[in-house]
Fold:
Amino acid sequence: MNLHPLAILLQTGLLLALAPFVSGVIKNWKAKLQNRRGPPIWQPYLDLIKFLGKDVVISEHASWVFSIAPYVVFLTALSAGLMVPILTVQAPLSLFGGALALIGLLALGRFFLALGGLDPASAFGGMGSSREMTISAIAEPALMLAIFTVAITAGTTDLSRVAAALHEANWQLLNPAHLMAFAALFIVLLAETGRVPIDNPATHLELTMIHEAMLLEYSGRLLAFMEWGASIKQLVLMSILVNLFLPGTLAADGTVAAFGLAFLIFVLKLLGLSAAVVVVETVNAKLRLFRVPDLLSAAFVLAALGLLSTFLFQ
Amino acid sequence: MPPGFPLMSAIFINVGLILFLVGTVSSLVLQRRGNLAVAFAFGCSGLAALCGLTAFITFLVAGFSRPIPAYELFPSLVPNVHFSVRIDALGAFFGMIVSLLGVALSVYSFGYAKAFVGRKNVGILGAFFNTLLLATTLVFLADNAFFFLIAWEIMALSAYCLVSFEHEHDETRSAGVLYFIMSHIGTGCLILGFLLLFQASQSYGFETFHALGDRMPPAKRDAAFLLFLFGFGVKAGIVPLHTWLPAAHPVAPSNVSALMSGVIIKTGIYGLTRVSFDFLGAPPNWWGVTVLTIGTISAVLGVLYALMEHDLKRLLAYHSIENIGIILMGLGAALMFLHTHHPVLAALALSAGLYHTINHAVFKALLFLGAGAVLHATHTRNMEEMGGLAKRMPKTALFFLIGAVAISALPPLNGFVSEWLTYQSLLQGFGTTPSLIRLMFPLSGAMLALTGALAAACFVKAFGITFLAQARSQHARDAHEAPFSMLLGQGILTAVCLLLGLFPVQFLTLLDPVTKQLTGEVLSSKLTAGSAWVLSGTAPQGGTVSTLGITLIALCLSSIPVALWWLFARRSRKRIDATWACGQPILQPQMEYTATGFSKPIRMIFKALFRPHREVQREYDYSPYFTTTIRFSAHVEEVFETRIYRPFRRWVWWISRRMRALQAGSIQAYLIYIFLTLLLLLFFAL
Amino acid sequence: MLLLSSIVMIPLASAALCSLVRSHRVLAGFTIVAFAAELALGLQLFRRVLTAGVVSEWNEFFHADALSAWMVLLIAAVSLATSLYAGRYFRRDFAAGVITTGRIRQFFVLNSLFAAGMFLVVLANNLGVMWFALEATALASVLLVALYNRKTSLEAAWKYVMLGSLGLALALFATVFTYAAAVGPHPSERLPNFNWSHLINVAPQLDRRLIKLAFVFAFVGYGTKAGLAPMHTWLPDAHSEAPSPTSAMLSGVSLKIALYALLRFHILTTQCLGTHFSGTLLLGFGLFSMFLAAPFILVQTNLKRLLAYSSLEHIGFICAGIGMNTPLTIFGALLHMGYHALTKPVLFFAAGNIHQTFHSLELRVIGPGVVKVLPITVCLMGLAAAAATGLPPFGLFYSELTVISGGFAARQTITSVLLLVALIAAFCGILTQLTRILLGAPKVEHSNDSKPWDGVPAMGLLLGALLLFSVWLPGSMLQLIHRAAGIVGGIP
Amino acid sequence: MNTPITASPELGSQLITLCAAVMLVLQFLLVVQRMLLTNIRLFALQSLMLSAIATIVAAFYHASHVYVVAGLTLVGKVFFLPWLLNRLVRRINITQEIEPLLNAPTSMLACGGLTLLGYIVARPFTTLQKLGNNTLAIAITLLLTGFFLMINRRKAISQVLALLTVENGVMLAAVALTTYGMPLVVELGIFFDVMVAVMVLGILVYRIRESFASMDTSKLTQLRG
Structure:
């Protein structure tokens, strides 16, 4: 198998374009659900353009790490996105790495995000990085175990092959292992994308914010790439969920029609998932930091059960 | 392969060994003339290591999977002792590691040891540095148990002398003693293990030990395995035998710490591999299970304790425990695969472990050298007094950052590759056995994930608190960049990190002889998917990864930000301004996040393990609501130290004190002893 | 030429000469010359024994086999080193005013007598004479221990002489019983032959019960003199209170000489009763001594007592090695004797230097950081300590490993494991204690030693020999030790 | 039995047994007696018995060299040593042993037990001893009780005396077991050794007395551990 430049370009464009849309949708629907008017769906695009144009203010204490962090976050999220099958079973970069590489890349992005938070010497940034690293650390085992559950049934960590395997196996979703893995991954998704009940993307209250705290000192295009990278990461994780657990609808052949169809269904699936996220965010309150581990360990247990059930039902 | 090739490497090795000796002697002779001693000692060690490197690499490249015949270094004049060495793939691989580090560390030491000239006797430092390298190389080359043990003990002895180099501090002395005692106990176990083999084969030769286990009674075989596991485990610093490691590694001079964390603890891995794959024959299942479990526990606990440290070098030492654990996961899985007769998977897991061995050697040495440079610049190991060094020593900061990324197993660097291989082998291990045991694989995989994430957290803390933000103390404020040779030493290791990360397939060919020797499988061909730049899990459709590809793609994608900048932000300016300080006039360093604070969430989450306790002293003038000064200190309890080692030590002292009463000084009592002995023997005789 | 008799006579002569002169230098000179000559003669004897097997003189009054030759070598070497060290040592004591010229002369006289007695022990053919010689060494060494005439040294000497002569009385019983056995049930007009060379041939015909009883008494008696636990109680006192040269002699050879006497009985018993009885006793008490020594080392507060306990541990190891009674273990044990004889005096010499610099042997007083005050002494002491704790590249590592692997080869696994455990325990103790005092920064500022090279020749000589023989055991010496091991193991 | 015996061996044997028994009795007296000078005299008597035994052996068995032993014992152990010790005692004017560890009755009891033990140990060898009955048993008993005496007494002098009684026991054993005693050279060696030993002990006792102002050896407990 070899690389299709066209596919790469296409998927890159898709990620760049779709990511702000998803966050916009979620913000908007959440507002609606809470009887507010809320920002328009395309608000994130406007924000990005605005940020890109603005001057950059850099802290006097910050070093070069501060300025490269946003680009690392952006690029890692983007290249991670190229390993996920979105429209076709065959992800453009599945040859360059599967689930493990994807997790690794996202972790690399987080690494620099946290460093960027520490660099301006403000207490908030440090607090944010500390919490971010803690939560991701305890989210990691659940994530890995869930991935393992899927990968074991497919026999590979290559997401395209996993998708393909599930594609052939008709309607795998009923498999309890997958249900539990899905649930686990959903919780991890909430944690990784900084959603209620783990984090509150809307707040700027010092003591509760996590992701925002790290971005506090960023401005201008640096902030733009930070935000954009975050939303791309969110899109990537969501598309893993939707495409690995409901793979039936990925485009089988290369015809334009098939692509179009796949794209539509993909967007629908995303909207469905976003709706779920919105509901969860609305009906739940943010957890205290030290209650978060309980939630994530619940995810871990779910994934472990899923694994156990693959073991039992084979 | 060209004939006489082994001869070549043999010659190179001999030259190297002789050079080490020359280095030892010359630096002892020149100890009065500090700088000259430094030049000679580290010059010789560097050249010697270079010779060794060429020899071992040529050997591995030529791919001798079968050992070349042993030869005597120098004729022994003592019966039963033969100073004979042989080069085989495993030994050559580890020899390559020690030589590689030897080169980089010697370069680094030129600048580093200068700092001691006049203050301490650098001649001693150089001499024992050479001896240590020499002994370690011989450990990997020794061909019989007697010689192996001699080299092993000399290694321990010189390491002890290096650890207690700055013996003026009490902490250093006690650490050295603890290290030497535990290592000696370990050596005792090794002696017993080897003697069990000797009992079975009536010989000391490693040749005759090969696959000896199959001819031994199972009980003795298992006993030997356990003895070796203990003996080599002490050296490798597995939990719960690790307590000496975070004590001894930090107090040594940094180039020595790098050597110890990089290579010396790897001798334990070497021994374990040698014994369990070469000597003891087909392993029963519980060996693999034990090693895998120990590995997992060591990995998780190691990184957890590392997170609690704010002493930079102790933090790194704890990470050595973690990485030893990861290596052992690979070895344990390999043993289990051997038991279930999956040689290819065994080869995969083994190469994962060995790959991580060399990776850890490189980036841990790199990090210790960085820490050494920081120590050299700030004269403190306490991270709470550092900060802002990225501006004052940018190159060191860059090297340290790369090391940190590598040890956190982040792509595209070498740590990621070896852990990726470990994941692959664990993943495929699930299918190898129908029994419930197979759940161990994914679970330890999850623990490995936890370890990786915690390591990332820990190094965000290590790098962030040490190098970023503003300086927390005067030391840190007037820090300066390290001299050239120290930077060069770090640079070499950084380059190796990148190479090992970006060209794994090419490197794995060097491992072929080893896997061929130990598992009978050649791997590198199975590990390349299509192009030579893509690494693949061995299974028919295992995952693939290409660090090089990822890097290139990322570079291509970075055109997007550039383009966007050109489109929107060409005219935007960059302003430097103060960080928002909540309305305070200026941002005080005290307002920064501290290392202790950074790791507090983890400390709270795992409080069952850490049993943290804190002391807060606050002073105020007129009302407790307006505190003038506040002093906070948090401690965690090291369970093994407080629950196992300290009580045992107390018990020993108590017994000994009690026994002194026997020698109370009264001659009557002494006469009674003799009298009773006489009566006893009279009864015994009649 | 009368080799053996001259070996015994020369020290006596030097003793006589020493009693005449006053000058310290001359005294030291005499003894050095004498013992250098002894060493030469010892090598001569070594060659003769290798060729002839057995050398005897004065119609077999003197009698030397491989075992005796080996012992002669050890005694000569240690005595030479001691006399090299003693001269300078006492000159410093004299300068410090702790000792009078008369006492110094007394030391040199008694020291020569001490050595002469030991030579006689190993060369005497008649067991009675052997006993007599051993008693002579005991008396000489008692006066040496009491040389400083301090309260503590008198106390030590008193305990030493009481326990020692009691033990020797028991040994005398053993001798009598053996003689009775030699006489046999049928008394005859002519005196029976009480020579070793005769006894060993008729051993199998001797009365078994008498020999057994004799061995029990010999074991307790000579065991007391050799410092086997629990009869060892005099040992740390005497070693710590004697002047350092004497401590070196006591621990370096005197203990081993007593052990030699015990071995003679052991051989007789094995010939008569088989190996089991005496072997078991040696092994059991050897192990007991080792395990007793370790805790005392760990909590010791006095430097020379520490070293004394380490000697106890080594003697125990040697006994155990011989008690295991396989060719390999006995060979290892005899080799260990040699290496230990070369190692331990160095430690005592170093302790002497430390004592004279710090005017105390209490570890607390010597405190941390001796290395800053006496760099060279500490360096040599460190080497010797590494050797004594059985670290390579020194020979004791080799001999210890030989004994233990011999045990394994003979399937005496448990015993060997116990031996190893005891060795490790002792190692831990010595390492902890010596690190505590030698390394570190001194508490109080001591004047850096004026004469750093004091005692270095003696220590250098021994350490050099040790290192040499650690990497190079000449074939002839190996042959000698093997023969000695054969004699001990009962292979005629 | 091809031993050429002229005078009636029974008589000799009887006499020897008698003397040996007397030695034992004297030993018991030593155990209970606390006056030092008396102790010394008792020891002298014991030694006298020993030399008597030697003489008897020499007379009844034509072992001319045993006369020498007898003579030496007489000179040395009956006259010289007691004289020496007397001088020592007068010099450091101490008249009697302080309270021993065990009081008189208990020590008698202990010695009785030790005698029993001596007999048990010696029983297998009754066939071996040529002269007298149970002389070997008595010799071993002398050893054990002497040992006990050393443990029980605290004055340096009386410990020396106890040691000397042990030596007597050895001599007795030598005579009893081995017809003609040991070879002369050995006897001489042993004898002079004992002499020297006692002198050394004397010197030490004197020095101890000087520097400790006492002879109580149970006070010598500086060296511990």
In short: Chains D and A do not touch (no CB pair under 8 Å). The helical segments of chain D are 9-32, 36-61, 64-91, 104-122, 135-152, 156-177, 184-212. Confidence is low (pLDDT under 50) at residues 1-5 of chain D.
